[in-house]
Amino acid sequence: MAAVGVSKHFGATTALSDVTMRIAPGETHALVGRNGAGKSTLVSLLTGLHRPDGGEIRFGGEPAPPAADRGAWRRRVACVFQRSTIIPTLTVAENLFLNRQSEGGPIRWGALRRRAGQLLEEYGVGVDPGAPAADLGVEQRQLVEIARALSQGARFIILDEPTARLDAAAIDRLFARLRGLAASGVTMLFISHHLQEVYTVCDTVTVLRDARWILTRPVADIGHDDLVAAMTGEAVGLTDVARRPPRDASVPAALRIDGLALDGAYEPLTLEVKAGEIVGVTGSGSSGKVSLAETVGGLRRASAGTVSVGGATVGAGVPAALRAGIGLVPQDRHREGLVPLLSVGENATMPIADRLGPAGMILPGRRRAAAQAAIERYDIRTEGPDAPVASLSGGNAQKVVLARATAREPKVLVLINPTAGVDVRSKESLLGAVRAAADAGTGVLMVSDELDDLRHCDRVLVMFHGRVTTELQAGWSDTEVVAAVEGVSA
Amino acid sequence: STTDKPGGSSTGGAGAPIAVDLPRADSDFWNSYAKYIPQYAKEANLNLMTPTNSQNDIAKLVANTQALTSQGAKAIVMAPQDTGAIATTLNTLEQKKIPVVTVDTRPDKGNVYMVVRADNRAYGQKACEYLGQKLGGKGKVVEFQGSLSSVNGRDRSEAFAECMQQKYPGITVFAEPTEWEGAKASAALQTRLAQHPDINGIYMQAGGVFLAPTLQLLRSKNLLVPPTDSKHIFIVSNDGIPQEFDAIRKGEIDATVSQPADLYAKYALFYAKAAVDGKKFEPGKTDHDSTIVQVREGVLEDQLPAPLVTKDNVDDKALWGNQIGK
Amino acid sequence: MTTTVTAPAPARRAVPLARLRDLALVPAIVALLVVGALIDPVFLSRANLVNVLQQQTELSLLVLGETLILIGGRFDLSLESTVGLAPALGVALVIPAASHGIGTEWATALAVPICLLVGILIGALNGVLILRFGLSAFIVTLGMLITLRGVQIGITGGQSLFDLPPSVTYLGNTIWLGVPLSVWLCVVVFAAGIAALGWFRQGRAVYAIGGNADAARAAGIRTDRVMYVVFMIAGLLAALAGLLMAGRLGSIASNQGSQMIFQVFAAAVIGGVSMNGGKGTLFGALCGVLVLGLVSNILTLAGVSAQWIQAVYGLVILVALVLARLTTGKSQDS
Amino acid sequence: MTTTVTAPAPARRAVPLARLRDLALVPAIVALLVVGALIDPVFLSRANLVNVLQQQTELSLLVLGETLILIGGRFDLSLESTVGLAPALGVALVIPAASHGIGTEWATALAVPICLLVGILIGALNGVLILRFGLSAFIVTLGMLITLRGVQIGITGGQSLFDLPPSVTYLGNTIWLGVPLSVWLCVVVFAAGIAALGWFRQGRAVYAIGGNADAARAAGIRTDRVMYVVFMIAGLLAALAGLLMAGRLGSIASNQGSQMIFQVFAAAVIGGVSMNGGKGTLFGALCGVLVLGLVSNILTLAGVSAQWIQAVYGLVILVALVLARLTTGKSQDS
Ligand SMILES: Nc1ncnc2c1ncn2[C@@H]1O[C@H](COP(=O)(O)OP(=O)(O)OP(=O)(O)O)[C@@H](O)[C@H]1O
Ligand SMILES: Nc1ncnc2c1ncn2[C@@H]1O[C@H](COP(=O)(O)OP(=O)(O)OP(=O)(O)O)[C@@H](O)[C@H]1O
Ligand SMILES: [Mg+2]
Ligand SMILES: [Mg+2]
Would you give per-residue pLDDT tens digits along chain A (490 residues)? Predict the structure, then answer.
């Protein structure tokens, strides 16, 4: 499998420029790079969804099949795309076997569902194969996509950030399976922003930067810091997370949650986040952590209890939450985060639209200035404030969401998986921005599955089946968290 | 042809340009009228501008009128299907001293030089009397009403209903709204026949749209039988197109009111020319078997004869439906 | 790391909403049958019910075509013009000029094949403009709606065509076993459609394309090719509907089919087909057609005055919608 | 490991496609002006151009309302019935029964306020059914389209109302500085609309809602409230259009506005407004209105035969679309 000198442009954007990459049969090859480096674009060329503007794709020495012959492409390569390719209106079973429901002849739905049930069980996805895919959570969707790609029997499999939405247990299960596949001679291309994972599962690594190929090496030959340097173009290593000074007990509470509950999601919960404090919340899928954050952010209406900021009770709804000084980074940037057709600037400044001019007016100059400030502050890679946000890569889009959440200089910041799909460097700057906000006195409630995120927290709450079961002070070990998340006492 | 020189004369005649707006292009009756216009214009050696067509849309009619005026029309012949909405346009034209002849319909408001029209109330009346007489004053009659928003449909419906009520109270009338659509009429008749298999009369307010669907339905129900059969349904139509005459000859329908497409065209142009020439008319009998009546101040109406055609006079050469090929 | 794997979240068997939505109109149909029977005993007579069915055959074919296109996430307004143009062209090419033919006078046996071919070609043309040129389906088919009707008027000079060859009137005018052939035809076509959409890959592909075209393409579905076929099938069905109508009415008016497209969409959407693609079934759409047919039949039987009939009709549709909403409890999409 | 830092990919300034798309129709308009002038010198006369503008005023108001709704990701077919019902109700309540009034004979000064209020109420009713009950906008407004027209026919018995009080005819019938008041009115309303959509919070909110309603809600926009207002504004504009039309035509026909909705959508979509929400501008929509008006004016002046005029009209629209596609190079959405 090889890409030889491929280039790809989207309008004025160069997504790939003269990239050559060869993947030897049977190897597990990692592809890393910062957000917008062109990884997903390369995937779309390798899967035949886009045609390269220059260069060519070859499989085992032969030229790639014609673009129209999707069947031939699918026999050569299976892929878990970064963007969901689940069709929400169809059932889980049909999504798993899309376009191969039967070998010609009528579809036998019963048999199909049974096959789907078996497949789901293998991957530990506890969903009814007959349920519409629209009912699945983000994580379940991701698992269904993985199960679909791995079950197609292709000898070459691409996984574009498969782990960005999975919890630790699911990632472990996935890796076990990948090792099995690799042992049986399947070739894999693995994309992730968790460099740890690259070292765990891959043999070789290729780095892309700014649409160009930078290097290809066996993973054993390249250290973590060198890898990061190749990705970022700066020869500096990652620093360890600095411990935050302990909070003064007399600091007032920024956020108070009093007996807050949502039927079916989590049970009455009381919690205080002090000004300047970062509180992490984690838990397995369906532990209720996301619902909790969404209630605080105003996206959901609590069935009992109150939320108060600076002593004043917050009403229901997002506008009330915003007014009270709560900023929210929602879970799914595609669904609740961004308006794809609008510009970066407009998305980033949406909550402060009332401050950009007199009498409800929005002065374009002021908006551009505000947006430019946010772009610089969060290091958003974009053509400028007027570029449509749909043209950003995943990680940069996530930064726009964070910029939006902090636009009003909130007293309380609620984050849900804020670094999902964000590259190492950006992750650092993102979390740095969160810390800076906290240092300036904002109370932060961060819901995350990622230990890297949680390391920035002053304390971490672990939820299990709708209840906080464990509270860990800074200095916890990874195993403690994992054990608590899985519901076994450490 | 589609590219006649605009504003020029397509008939090559002399004199002031006369404009004609056709009301629609999708009905047999009006298409016949459209064919007669250039023919009579040539005969009378008029300077006829290329006719416009307002496609049954009052907004288009207004737009066309404005365009024709800009192009220098000295008289306009039109047939506003919506008789209320033309008032303002008529006022404007009056101010510009451009005389208007309306054909088939009489504007509710505003002045015109002449209305060339057959008496639509008389249509309804004639149909009612014919049916009442044939049915002997009792039975069940289905009436396909035209659109309520057209004055002709309303006149025919009202006259038919009044006459039936007064003269033949023994006859039950089912008035079916059709919006001038054959498919609606067919569905309504089919339903009504299921409900009342003993229906023995039909009045169709427009043969052009209702004739074929009605015959087809009756044929499939084996109800298309000669008048001698007791199951015969008496059918009176309206328009006078050749297909109706054929059906009368075959005994499939019994009568139709011939709406004179040829005379409409002929006298519309006649009055338009007279207007340009500055002639004046008075109420009273004319030289062509008709009467001019003053319907209100400022509006004269020449009510052309609309003969009832039955088996007896269906072959009359004078009928316009016998003069054109099908 | 050892963990006792927590039991997967209880996979509560989701109520098959799609199924429920499908049946949402059944109570409405039953209610209409009861109301009809109360208003006039004739309503439930075999003859009347057969009439209702026959009157809806043409609409139902159009709805079938439109439903396929809607499920595939597209849109076709031009079907109503195809209903007129296809048979008009088929007939005009074979009848003598004296009967308003074009004058070619081809063999009469060709009328029906030409008609169907014209339907397919129109569908293909829509497909080219929408899929190949990337034009908006709404505006392309709106343009086609106007153009095709205009072409029909141009060819026939606005006249109705009366002298139809028997092959053209046959379909819409024949009775088999006491039921019109057109009704049998619809039953067969719908059965085939339901089977294809429910149990065959090409049918499921239409759902996938409407649900998420990118995902469908990624899964190896030749989305454009499938949609071309769908557009052509819809054109074919519209031409067939035109034939049925020509046969039933014994002539082809130059406005044949005009105004039907609103009814087509009303039936499909009342029947639970989403305007956003990927959702809906032919059975639901068929129920929608029946509801519309029953409502107008009942209003005719009840003798609602011409003055108010339209208001009542519209209101009944609105109420039917609200009821469908309350029975399924599912919010509809924009 | 050493890497030479590669320069960041040159961020060439992207062509502002949205801007380009907006102007896509300007060449078409220029071309039409040239063609018109060649066909008949009368075309470029002040009187003719003013006529074209005046004839399009009502359509343009409807297009404004519809464009707002479309940008917000919804749909309203019922506007064309509002054009008839709102002024009809306003007038029928004040004129004597002898002139086909209802018989209430309220003060004539109330006619215009009632008319506008009816428009707003209809918009609000659409809003309730769509936003509150979660019904499909397409089908709700289709039902409303039929029902409202039916109510108008019911109230007036299908008769035109022609004894209009002067307050009603004033707007559509007055000339200021040689240009009809209705044209001035449209200019003002469009200028306000363009400003609101481009530079005001509430206007931008409509784009956000149409682009992604969930994201808009998460960003603190009161999506339902904004859309209620949009529906009411559209209803108000439709009522205003009805007043203009009543004034221009001097009466209110029972089918006033009927068939306009197709034109409304054609103008909006030709003008680059997306049926999927979030995209389009009022300036583009206005250009669409002008194109339609110029095309019909030119076809009339050119004296295209009645038989073929509709086909030519449809074809011209299709060609305009393809040209718009080629100039912007952007694929349109379904
Ligand atoms: N369809 C598109 N239209 C316009 N620009 C695009 C498109 N797809 C990608 N791009 C641009 O191409 C560049 C590469 O994007 P790509 O998605 O390949 O990045 P990536 O390496 O996968 O990033 P991430 O880690 O965030 O997923 C980015 O600048 C992106 O904005
Ligand atoms: N509004 C609601 N009404 C009823 N049940 C709900 C509601 N919201 C969430 N749930 C249920 O509550 C449980 C917890 O949901 P939640 O999304 O908070 O989990 P989570 O920990 O965020 O999981 P994940 O990591 O998959 O996002 C799930 O079973 C979900 O189906
Ligand atoms: Mg990517
Ligand atoms: Mg969740």
Answer: 788 889 998 877 788 989 999 999 889 999 998 877 889 899 999 988 888 998 889 888 888 888 878 778 888 888 888 878 888 889 999 999 888 888 778 888 889 999 999 988 887 778 889 888 888 877 788 888 888 888 887 888 899 888 877 777 788 888 888 888 888 888 999 998 888 888 988 999 999 988 899 999 998 988 888 888 888 776 654 556 667 777 777 888 889 999 999 988 899 999 999 998 999 999 876 788 999 999 999 999 999 999 999 888 998 888 899 989 999 999 888 888 888 888 999 899 988 888 888 888 888 888 899 999 989 888 888 888 888 888 887 778 888 999 999 888 899 999 998 888 788 777 888 888 888 889 888 999 999 888 888 888 999 999 988 889 889 888 888 778 877 887 765 4
Which domains does chain A possess? 2-86+136-232 (3.40.50.300), 253-485 (3.40.50.300)
- H or E element, residue A390: none
Q: Which of B74, B70, B60, B72 is nearest to B21 (CA)?
A: B60
Question: Which C residues, 24 through 53, put their C-beta within 8 Å of a C-beta on chain B?
Answer: 40, 42, 45, 47-48, 51-52
Give the C-alpha separation, C137 to D44, whole Å.
34
Considering every ligand atom, which ligand is closest to the CA of A159? 3
Length of chain D: 334
DSSP B5: P
CA distance C146 to D269: 15
d(CA A144, CA A98): 12
Contact between B304 and B264 under an 8 Å Cβ cutoff? The reply is yes
**Nearest Cα to A434, choosing from A442, A423, A422?**
A442
Instruction: Examine chains A and B and say if they touch (3+ CB pairs below 8 A).
Output: no
Residues 6+ apart with CB under 8 A from A243: A474
Task: Select from A83, A192, A393 the residue to mutate for testing ligand 1; criterion: most ligand atoms less than 8 Å from CB.
Answer: A393
* Cα B156 to Cα A270: distance, rounded to the nearest angstrom: 80
Length of chain B: 326
Neighbours of B173 (CB within 10 A): 20
Q: Can you tell me the ipTM of this complex?
A: 0.82
Partners of B291 in beta bridges: B285, B303
Q: What is the Cα–Cα distance from D287 to D267, expressed in whole angstroms?
A: 8
What's the gap between Cα A326 and its chain centre?
22
Torsion of CA D249, D255, D260, D261, to 10 degrees: 150
- Top mutation candidate among A290, A292, A299, A463 for ligand 2, by most atoms within 8 Å of CB: A290
- 3-state secondary structure string, D302-332? HCCCHHHHHHHHHHHHHHHHHHHHHHHCCCC
Nearest to D306 among B25, B49, B85 (CB): B25
- Please indicate whether residue A287, judged by its CB atom, sits closer than 6 Å to ligand 2: yes
Nearest one of B127, B131, B319 to B242, comparing CA atoms: B319
CATH numbers and ranges of domains, chain D = 21-328 (1.10.3470)
CA atoms within 13 A of residue D52's CA, in its CB half-sphere: 25
Sign of the torsion angle spanned by Cα atoms B226, B229, B232, B236: positive
Backbone angles phi, psi at A37, to 5 degrees: -70, -20
Q: Nearest-CA neighbor of A385 among A363, A400, A398?
A: A400
Whole-model pTM: value is 0.84
CB D171 within 8 A of CB D182: yes
Q: Render the burial of C172-191: b for 16+ CB within 10 Å, e for the rest.
A: bbeeeeeebbbbebbeebbe
The whole-angstrom separation of Cα C192 and Cα C203 is 11
Contact indicator for B92, B250 with CB cutoff of 8 Å: no
